[in-house]
Amino acid sequence: xxxxxxxxxxxxxxxxxxxxxxxxxxxxxxxxxxxxxxxxxxxxxxxxxxxxxxxxxxxxxxxxxxxxxxxxxxxxxxxxxxxxxxxxxxxxxxxxxxxxxxxxxxxxxxxxxxxxxxxxxxxxxxxxxxxxxxxxxxxxxxxxxxxxxxxxxxxxxxxxxxxxxxxxxxxxxxxxxxxxxxxxxxxxxxxxxxxxxxxxxxxxxxxxxxxxxxxxxxxxxxxxxxxxxxxxxxxxxxxxxxxxxxxxxxxxxxxxxxxxxxxxxxxxxxxxxxxx
Length: 276
Ligand code: ADP
Ligand code: MG
Known about the structure:
alpha/beta; Rossmann fold; four-stranded antiparallel β-sheet; binds adenosine-5'-diphosphate; binds magnesium ion
């Protein structure tokens, strides 16, 4: 526990029944790395209280698109962007709107679990909170840690070892710790980039369960290469493709059962049936 812990500000507890999850809309997103155009006019609405799965072959721009949704793309020196991203109608790229404004509302979980390995499990959960001088009591902090670990499906496994380092957990537990850390700032949208592809089937199932339970309170966008997973967790899917050196675009999107049962584009049918 460091001195700065006493200046943690906890995010407000949402009013029960209040509509916290936001609708995220990408409008005409094109993206470049230097001269290399990697996304071409991608538009997609990711509705509140829905899970959206982004599917498609490697290299078609899914991770780039996800990073654009919370303003991480602009951190790459050579990166350029066109289009808009609206969070409940507000452009997160509006001039004057700070990058932290988007980050606090739009969390991200990566393929490789990345807890702070030497930091305790307890402190890892709180690591994303802003230090700005308002006191939060120890009880409040502990309450938030328990709440977020519970939501991430990890509480029972770690409640007796909260002071152990995050790095001591298994890979699947570390990923759930990262989910808890993301939830601690009470994001309105959670972006997940292949969150289970480094994990065993049991951990994968636990995270899918967590996604299902969270979808009421946070809008979820998940990139996955696992077609069964897309079908299990998502309400709608978008199929990305970059053909023969052209930039990535969305070939088709729609309700998950339609995308898998009767897609309108042959390329979607081929992809979801494992034909490329
Ligand atoms: P996906 O997640 O669908 O596999 P990515 O978004 O990672 O696709 O990559 C899309 C394209 O952008 C690829 O051609 C990739 O090489 C390129 N790319 C991704 N990140 C960078 C970067 N930081 N610098 C340059 N090119 C990049
Ligand atoms: Mg990727």
